[in-house]
Amino acid sequence: MKRALLFALLLAACKEDAVQNTDPLPLTAETTGYFCQMNLLEHEGPKGQVQLEGLPGAPLFFSQVSDTVAYLRLPEQSHVILAIYVSDMGAAGATWAEPGAANWIDARTAHYVVGAAVEGGMGAPEVVPFADLASAQAFASARGGSVMDLNDIPDSALTAPVSTAPDGDDDYARRLKALSAKPEG
User: Fold this and answer.
1) What is the per-residue pLDDT across 23-81, written as a single tens digit (0 to 9) for each?
2) What confidence tens digit (pLDDT) does each residue in 86-116 have?
3) Rounded to an integer, what distance in angstroms lies between the CA atom of residue 133 and that of residue 50?
4) Sequence spans of domains, the chain
């Protein structure tokens, strides 16, 4: 009995913990956004992915970098984050229309242009990531905005302002009033 226990302890000591692979996965025709559940290749602008502990090979993808950063800051986010990647918009061949399927960089070391006159994949203002500081500064000079590190991006840059102005035939106030009107009779 003692030998069996000793053998079990030795085996347990020799066992190496399996390390979860956190290499970024390329975008494919099947890649959908975590929040929007839409195909990411159909949307312009940089993307993000988050690798969570316990979910190997199944990162959460985001249609906008601002959505990625917002997810990181959600109080409801409960998994341990192992890796965060964003599209390098300074990579060779990366354009706004086609930001690249595999040009991922570590989000924690990227340089972000915040406040530029650009919209991400879902039509909201976007923060634009670059691996190279000089590329980020050149983008900010051309499109406006400021260069920041991940932790310096203000929460206000992650949410799109909500318009309360009427929208032509889709006048929200008119429709709301019609819905809340008392029925005649």
Assistant:
1) 999 999 999 989 888 888 888 999 999 999 988 878 999 999 999 999 999 998 888 99
2) 999 999 999 999 999 999 999 999 999 999 9
3) 23
4) 24-153
Could you report how far apart the first and last alpha carbons of the chain are, in Å?
88
- Map tokens 């595999």 to a residue: 102
Q: For residue 84, count CB atoms less than 10 angstroms from its CB and return exposed for 0-12, middle for 13-18, buried for 19 or more.
A: buried
Domain 24-153 part of CATH 2.30.250.10: no
What letter represents residue 143's amino acid? R
Helix (H) or strand (E) holding 62: strand 60-62
Which has the closest alpha carbon to 158: 86, 63, 65? 65
